[in-house]
Amino acid sequence: MSAEIKAQDIIAQVQAWVKSVVVGENFCPYAAPVLDHVHYQLLASDPHEQLQDFVDSCFQLQAEPAIETALLIVPAGLEDFDDYLDRLELLQALLEAQGFLGEFQLASFHPDYCFDGISADEAENYTNRSPWPIFHLLRESSLSEALERVSSPEKIPERNRRHAERLGVVHLRAALQRSKEAKA
Question: How far apart are CA 95 and CA 108, in angstroms?
């Protein structure tokens, strides 16, 4: 993490992104109702400490039902998207090894997110691009309840892809940049 970027500014940037892009563009129809119940946390850049932070976050989410979801932000160490995907795979295995599979689910966001088989400059990648690398820890039960309230949830990815294409890369890049300029 750069010395001039404060932890509270990083969290403010992610909050701005959630409000303006995730909720504002309705990329996640489940996000708006739980905005006040999101836990934002910075993970350590040291890989071993990061794994411990992740497990601790799982236990915290388990112990605090008022927290609906957690956005675990990595301010340093996972700038490379391939390194991020390797860590995501490791965290997924850790969920299973710690007995959290079925209770929690991971979603992924990264500044250079690129869907497999999609060109890096395609607008649809911005549905998962964020100001910082983020591991999104979701409660399975909350996700199931949210899915019941949405008609045709299986169509959300395609709807998001089409919406991102309509908005265009220039618009989406600017929205992401604006969130990166937020201050606490």
Answer: 14
- pTM score above 0.90: yes
DSSP E strand boundaries for the chain: 38-42, 69-73, 104-109, 134-139
Task: Give the range of the structural domain holding residue 108, as residue numbers without chain letter.
Answer: 7-180
Asked whether the beta carbons of 40 and 73 are under 8 A apart, the reply is yes
Residue 69 lies in a domain: yes
Burial 117-127 (b: 16+ CB within 10 A, else e): eeeeeebbbbb
Burial class (CB in 10 A: 0-12, 13-18, 19+), 130: buried
| Residue 19 scores a pLDDT above 70 | yes
Contact predicate 10/75, CB 8 Å: yes
Number of domains forming the structure of the chain: 1
